[in-house]
Amino acid sequence: MGSDHFRSDNPNRFGDDRAPGPSTYAPNGQLDAILFELGNANARIASDRSQGLITPAQAHSLRFEERMIRREAIADNAMDGGKIPMGRYEQLMTQVDNLQSQV
Q1: How many domains does the chain have?
Q2: Domain contains 86
Q3: Using only C-alpha atoms, what is the Rg of the chain?
Q4: Of 80, 76, 87, whose CA–CA distance to 35 is shortest?
Q5: Count of other CB atoms within 10 angstroms of residue 34
Q6: Rounded (10°) CA dihedral 89, 91, 92, 95
Q7: What pLDDT score does 85 carry?
Q8: Structural domain containing residue 88
Q9: Residue 17 counted as domain residue
Q10: Which range, of 6-10, 15-19, 26-30, 64-68, averages the lowest pLDDT?
Q11: Is 48 inside any structural domain?
Q12: How many Cα atoms sit within 13 Å of 73 on the Cβ side?
């Protein structure tokens, strides 16, 4: 989950004998991924609400949850200069997955 939002400067990917290079975060890549998934969830909430599949109260609750995850992700990203630590990124993506399973 999320491995495409990181890049590796590992020279061993070419099969040579040098020590592996550092793995680095793609700036804002984790935040972009979270926001993209939250946008998808928000669109599904709107669609389900317009089709009468969920009540206004359910839509309100789901949107509140979406906003809270968004705020957490933006705050975490800002605290570390555009880099959400991998452990925290995984926690946020689990929250996003849980939200999407409710929609």
Answers
A1: 1
A2: yes
A3: 17
A4: 76
A5: 25
A6: 160
A7: 87
A8: 27-102
A9: no
A10: 6-10
A11: yes
A12: 25
- Distance from C-alpha of 29 to C-alpha of 5, rounded to nearest angstrom: 5
Q: Write down the pLDDT at residue 17.
A: 54
Place of tokens 């959400």: 84
pTM of the model: 0.71
Please check whether residue 19 lies inside any domain of the structure: no
What confidence score (pLDDT) does residue 23 get? 43
Sign of CA dihedral 70, 72, 78, 83: negative
pLDDT in tens, 46-101: 999 999 999 999 999 999 999 999 999 999 999 878 888 889 999 999 999 999 99
pLDDT greater at residue 9 or residue 32 = 32
Are the CB atoms for 30 and 77 separated by under 8 Å? yes
Tell me the pairing of strands 6-8 and 23-25: antiparallel
Give me the helices (H) in 1-103, please. 29-50, 56-79, 86-102
Q: What is the mean pLDDT of residues 14-36?
A: 64
Query: What is the spatial distance between Cα 62 and Cα 11, in angstroms, rounded to a whole number?
Result: 44
